[in-house]
Amino acid sequence: MGRVVAVATCALNQWALDFEGNLKRIVRSIGIAKSSGALYRLGPELEICGYGCSDHYYESDTLLHSFQVLAKLLESPATQDIICDVGMPVLHRNVRYNCRVIFLNKKILLIRPKISLANTGNYRELRWFTPWTKARHVEEYFLPRIIQEVTGQETVPFGDAVLATNDTCLGVEICEELWAPNSPHIEMGLDGVEIFANSSGSHHVLRKAHTRVDLVNSATAKNGGIYILANQKGCDGDRLYYDGCAMISMNGETVAQGSQFSLDDVEVLVATLDLEDVRSYRAEISSRNLAASKVNPYPRVKVNFALSSSDDVAVPTCMPIKWRHHSPEEEISLGPACWLWDYLRRSKQAGFFLPLSGGMDSSATACIVYSMCHQVCLAVKNGNADVLADVCRIVNDETYVPEDPREFCKRIFTTCYMASENSSQDTCNRAKLLAEQIGSYHINLNIDAAVKAIVGIFSMVTGRTPLFSVFGGSKRENLALQNVQARVRMVLAYLFAQLTLWTRGMPGGLLVLGSANVDESLRGYLTKYDCSSADINPIGGISKTDLKNFIQYCIENFHLTALRSIMSAPPTAELEPLVDEQVAQTDEVDMGMTYAELSIYGKLRKIAKAGPYSMFCKLINMWKEICTPREVASKVKHFFRMYSVNRHKMTTLTPSYHAENYSPDDNRFDLRPFLYNSTWSWQFRCIDKEVN
């Protein structure tokens, strides 16, 4: 009697439209699964074409190339004698579906379309796909000729069905279906499905991993069963980092855990589990068995194949493990670092350029690059040949082996302190010391000549010379003079990024890194087209509060003592004249609100869906110990005025690593107008009425 099954899941670093690379990674994962004794292999959502194809899903080329890859997989010796479950888009009766294609020994067993599509936040699946709404219904799918020639099949089952092997029953969920209130695994489990397989394209958000783990474990805690989850990992071409965490759970407990952050393009988990443990677990849940006796059955696709062998009494099975979660500071250290590495190697650039101001945000960005260098050296030390090959190409040296993160950092990371007459010696020293400790190639320069030249042109044309406020100038003059400095820095950053390596006799250019945090973007506390304008920004989705904690983490774990003085210094843009050689301008005074308040405003605006009136109503209770209702009203009004007049800046926001669910990213996550009536007259009158 067969009872012990070996199943495999994986996390693959797929890349949108990289059909050749995606095929190689899929084949490699199947080979690893087979060599580990698995007879079923599950892969991530839409792994053949890559999840992030966006509007390329509309193109017939994407469908064609996906089927061409599927044909290669069907023909590959690696896919023989193992049930393979892969993801790709499929056009059925002129409707496009997000599908799983399950096959065995050159025969397609089932094409299972996604039932619940992800369509919130960063996800737009309803734009490209249609959900399958015919519950427990199967139709004939006519295969394209390139597949018919391989399988000898003309049609295959397409729809909501489960697989019945000789020893068990297996059902499929696709990503969002696990998160839905009416998840298919509930009814499938009641209908006798013992193994649930979920292929996901789930991205990283700070503090989110435990939610996913809890959902998987709870899926089988009430109903029994084996739950297998595969996920994409890495940057597949946009702002998201897919964070792996492939896992296998049985009867409510985790038995196998994959890494959340890793430079390995292919990671495979295999678990050996006893089906009798599922059956005995279910046997004593009388409420479950009563519901199961009345369930509407699923169509079953019979498969003459077993996931177990008849002689398995001595086969050891996996035991439950305790899931190890990363702290938020570890997540910031690892997630954006892995995202940067993918972006660097796939963009075929030679490194990064960062304007390093000596403040907390740019220092946090520098620390993330340093963390990336640590991860690269560790991966090479552990024998990752793919990472080593990428390193050699990036540094243009086939013999190079990175061993010391500081030495590797020197090769691929250039930092630059751009001083002006308004810069303090303190920030200059902080930037220089941090650069020394992480090993970056550091440049000091002064922008005053360029600023004076630009202001001089304006004065020559208009006959007027703007002044800072401290010298009698208006607010408009003061702001314009600050913006000139900021924008000059952006122009110089791109010039040095393009030519710095050339001056050092090295090939290639550098990616410019931005360092505006999520709170500043929300408030609009940045100059449009200043150093916040860059190629990519690893901290653009992270709050100031979390960045402070991350800096402390770097002090303790990377021993970067230069960060101590950076942490203790008040945040400042250093764009206004010094007073007695000391900084007089600070961010929180400029903004008229604290960073802690900004985080609260951001979460209420986006996550709680609060407009001005609702935000006021919530905050008079949250802040009743520290603010009067009138003070709360004043704070809320000031935030919404500043948010609305600066919202236009979000249309040009540098692509940022998505890490917070209150990100104001205008590209796809936070869709809002960028021309507001900033008086909010009706809304503010409602607030005033409540105050009175």
TrEMBL record:
Of the GO CC terms on this record, one is: cytosol
Superkingdom of source: Eukaryota
Which GO terms label this protein's molecular function in UniProt?
Answer: ATP binding; glutaminase activity; NAD+ synthase (glutamine-hydrolyzing) activity
UniProt keyword annotations, A-Z: ATP-binding, Ligase, NAD, Nucleotide-binding
GO BP annotation list: 'de novo' NAD+ biosynthetic process from L-tryptophan
Q: In which pathway does it act?
A: Cofactor biosynthesis; NAD(+) biosynthesis; NAD(+) from deamido-NAD(+) (L-Gln route): step 1/1
CN hydrolase domain sequence ranges: 5-275
Pfam (any one): NAD_synthase
EC numbers on record: 6.3.5.1
* Top EC category: ligase
The subunit field of the Swiss-Prot or TrEMBL record says: Homohexamer.
For this chain, the family text in UniProt reads: In the C-terminal section; belongs to the NAD synthetase family.
Give the protein name, as stated in the record: Glutamine-dependent NAD(+) synthetase
Name the gene for this chain: Nadsyn1
